[in-house]
């Protein structure tokens, strides 16, 4: 029996024959990466934008492959002048769905659409497989194009997406690959008919995608388990990590202390040996330079492959929410926040509300200054009449991350100073795990659903509550971190935190 194949199965085979084998014979061993929800959403939106460019196009939307094949044949027989989307073809039991087929000069231009902003190597084999199956099915192709997102496109509004995609003619480039497709098919089938390939984890496991079978293959290869305190716990080690590994060190506790010259590295080693958290009093000294009121600020942002607001570009970082805890005097907290769920461009109201909240003086604590400062600087560029107060806010920002990294470590942080890793070690009463939105990617998904036109009002209200609770906890976490670094005891009362 010849195994049925598809473009994605052949791509899995090209990444690693074992990946295809596992995908077909042992799919239950795979663990899908969580990041793909956003990627799928980007791909869908780009597909919709392409279809909008060809209003007389016909979408083959049947899910069942046989139905899709029949629909494709019918439409092509009776509407030779109409572009087709998701047209379905099969040859030698290899099934493909073409993103777009555009009639030209009595033939068809095959367009493979990608949400990325540049051509990647695996796109070429993608196009080659599509073109081979189309041609073998009897279709005359005038050209093969790859249409990828043009990062320089600025959306003028009004649903006008002309220029969003950059079309690149790959007809000549993929020709040598097209002739290799029959060989790929034959070898892929031979792989499937045989036992599990004896392939161990290597560079192919992450290129072009993270393989979902990594855990299975690592276990099967009997890779040594990581020590309890591996060398990766050392932040910014430069060449040191490779040197220590070359000398046979695997566990930080075994490294001679004199090999660690950075104080933060020595602290991590001491913590590994003692099992006790360490806090350097220098953190409190550094924080004592900052008076009151103190502001603790955090932003949430989103990127769209297909811009939805006039004047924005593909994948531009767009802020939509902030939370700010204000500590007017030691321990006296109030919480302010902004979230625009209207579906309109939130940036200007975001900036205006931020300016109103941030007052004129006092440090503005952020965690990892690069993100918040660059967001504010971009807002200042976009809204010149708000530029002065926005730049003043950027100038008042103080980064808590290096303070934490240089002066605090707890064994449970496992080498990470992300606020989500730090918080449980100093404020176990605050827990992201109890929230419906627990990290930035979830916040982006929730926001996308919040502003989607079809979202019901009750669901919107729920999403709004969830987003506000998440961002609020981010800034409360910064308050608690600061107090911990200063050696101040006590948790803020619920009435002052915004969590009550
Ligand atoms: S984890 Fe690596 S070796 Fe295993 S199937 Fe995937 S790509 Fe192949």
What does this structure look like?
With 500 residues, the chain is an alpha/beta fold. The chain has 3 domains: 5-193, Alpha-Beta Complex (Lambda Exonuclease, Chain A), CATH 3.90.320; 231-276, no CATH class; 283-497, 2-Layer Sandwich (Nucleotidyltransferase, domain 5), CATH 3.30.420. It contains 19 helices and 14 strands. Strands 1, 2, 3, 4, 5, 6 and 7 form a 7-stranded mixed sheet that branches. Strands 11-10-9-12-13 form a 5-stranded mixed sheet, with helices on both faces. Helix 4 (65-78) links the parallel strand 2 (58-59) and strand 3 (84-91). Helix 1 crosses helix 5, helix 13 (369-382) runs antiparallel to helix 14 and helix 17 (440-451) packs antiparallel against helix 18. The mean pLDDT is 92. Iron/sulfur cluster binds next to helix 2 and helix 8.
């Amino acid at each position: 029996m010849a195994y049925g194949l598809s473009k994605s199965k052949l791509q899995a085979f090209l990444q690693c024959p074992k990946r295809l084998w596992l995908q077909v014979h042992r799919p239950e061993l795979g663990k899908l990466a969580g990041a793909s929800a956003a990627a799928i959403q980007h791909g869908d939106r780009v597909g919709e934008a392409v279809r909008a460019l060809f209003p007389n196009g016909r979408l083959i939307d049947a899910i069942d492959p046989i139905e899709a094949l029949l629909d494709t044949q019918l439409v092509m027989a009776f509407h030779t002048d109409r572009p087709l989307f998701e047209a379905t073809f099969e040859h030698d039991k290899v099934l493909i769905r073409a993103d777009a087929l555009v009639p030209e000069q009595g033939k068809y231009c095959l367009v493979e659409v990608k949400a990325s902003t540049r051509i990647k190597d695996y796109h070429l084999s993608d196009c080659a497989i599509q073109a081979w199956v189309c041609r073998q099915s009897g279709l005359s192709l005038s050209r093969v194009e790859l249409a990828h997102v043009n990062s320089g496109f600025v959306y003028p509004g009004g649903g006008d997406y002309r220029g969003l995609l950059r079309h690149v003619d790959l007809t000549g480039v993929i020709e040598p690959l097209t002739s290799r497709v029959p060989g790929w098919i034959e070898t892929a089938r031979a792989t499937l008919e045989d036992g599990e390939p004896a392939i161990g984890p290597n560079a192919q496991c992450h290129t072009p995608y993270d393989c979902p079978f990594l855990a299975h293959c690592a276990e099967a290869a009997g890779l040594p388990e990581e020590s309890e305190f591996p060398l990766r716990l050392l932040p910014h080690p430069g060449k040191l990590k490779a040197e220590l590994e070359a000398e046979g060190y695997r566990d930080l506790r075994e490294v001679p202390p004199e090999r660690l010259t950075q104080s933060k590295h020595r602290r991590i080693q001491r913590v590994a040996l003692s099992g006790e958290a360490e806090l350097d009093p220098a953190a409190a000294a550094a924080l004592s330079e900052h008076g009151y009121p103190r502001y603790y600020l955090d932003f949430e942002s989103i990127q769209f492959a297909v811009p939805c607001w006039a004047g924005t570009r593909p994948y531009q970082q767009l802020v939509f929410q902030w939370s700010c805890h204000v500590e007017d005097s030691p321990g006296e907290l109030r919480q302010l926040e902004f979230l625009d769920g209207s579906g309109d461009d939130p940036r200007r109201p975001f900036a205006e509300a931020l300016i109103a909240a941030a007052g004129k003086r006092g440090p503005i604590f952020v965690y990892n200054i690069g993100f918040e400062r660059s967001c504010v600087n971009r807002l200042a560029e976009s809204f010149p009449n708000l530029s002065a107060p926005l730049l003043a806010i950027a100038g008042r920002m103080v980064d808590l991350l290096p303070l934490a990294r240089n002066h605090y470590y707890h064994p449970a942080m496992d080498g990470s100073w992300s606020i989500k890793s730090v918080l449980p070690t100093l404020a176990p009463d605050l827990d992201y795990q109890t929230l419906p939105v627990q990290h930035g990617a979830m916040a982006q998904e929730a926001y996308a659903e919040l502003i989607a036109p079809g979202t019901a009002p009750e669901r919107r209200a729920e999403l709004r509550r969830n987003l506000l609770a998440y961002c609020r906890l981010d800034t409360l976490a910064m308050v608690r971190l600061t107090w911990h670094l200063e050696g101040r005891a006590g948790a803020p009362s619920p009435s002052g935190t915004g969590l009550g």
